[in-house]
Amino acid sequence: MDTDSITANWEKKDLDNVASAEGLSRDKLKRLIETGRVAIPRNAKRAAHVDGRVLKAIGEGMSTKVNVNVGTSMDYVNIEEEVEKVKIAVKYGADAVMDLSTGGDIDEVRRRILKEVAVPVGTVPIYQAALGRSGERAVVDMSSDDMFNAVRAHAKDGIDFVTIHAGVNLNTLERLKRSNRILDVVSRGGAFHVAWMIHNERENPFYAEYEYLLEIAKEYDLTLSLGDGMRPGAILDASDRAKYMENIVLGELVAVAREEGVQTIVEGPGHVPLDEIEASVKTIKHITDFAPLYLLGPLVTDIAPGYDHFVSSIGGAVAGMYGADFLCMVSPSEHLALPSVNDIKEGTIVTKIAAHVADLVKAGQREKARRLDAEMAQARKKLDWEKQLELAINPEEARRIKDSRPSVTDACSICGDLCAIKLVKEFLEK
Ligand code: SF4
Fold first, then answer.
1. Which pLDDT tens digit goes with each residue over 334-349?
2. Which atom of ligand 1 is nearest to the CA of 420?
């Protein structure tokens, strides 16, 4: 790969903006991108669709980013609601959004979302390919052309990154068959490829014709997010041979993409108990030669439906501490129903907290993140309520609670005139 093959045609100001947001020099950022340790999803066609596009760097040394998934389903289609979801996600700090639509006019949803938000937008093109031209389930009937054409169509619209389950190949499938998993495959894209390979007795086209996929990616500057088709869907299924086999394949695919100057992100699990997160993150990072790691969770218990946004942010914070770069928002409706606008808002806020908690201990971000906490501590010491509310991750909610039970003193209504901060300050200053 040429030393400048990825960023050669990028505008300097784009690199400068990202470098300044992350607190490093343009040259260092460029080096990290060229070596594949950092990715900036940016479709070359997207600029024509959106004013004031916001680029985000994902990977080593960068702040932990948050992605928010939205999208229609075959059971529920309301395009305006999906647009509202991406807007609220960005309002509460989403660094990227993904449209996972599988119902209604999927092209229309994708194009609307591309126009409505300035952050990177991703999709999973296999979802649309698996619906066929009639919009009905055509998982095992799609041709390899249908799969590649879906990727091309999304790229042509300006999509910045796409999830591609190229690691779900015949070899990985064999490991799955020999496993004793409770929940065999919980990734929708992974399930499509597994069903397709078994039915058609053929290798996954995204794996078999990976070079062709790279050609499409190169043409549009499309970032490949190499999907986690074998992600465990239960705590007892975590860290098994099927998942690690897929990680090995993904590592090889990352290397090939780098040779061709295509940016990659690697997706990771899933449901993982707390004590396996460190090994999981570090192993995936090593096997993939430190590609940016995008985690779908990890969810650290299976038994909290309704609260899975908290479950995944516990896992996300720990994973971020060990090197995960990109956290996928999990909403309170995970495992239960298509999320509402409010579910997206709650999930985004909780995932942003996890990302910040990770940044507080992450090399390259620690000082910057700690400055925010220091500011909050100073505001608390001064009982400066306006400043505290301004610094809060969700100022509206913080204000609502503060105003709901006001104090007659300048402290808050928890201790009132017995405020510890005030009391000790008074005596220490004597
Ligand atoms: S009143 Fe109590 S809870 Fe409120 S700021 Fe003072 S010490 Fe903190």
1. 999 999 999 999 999 9
2. 7
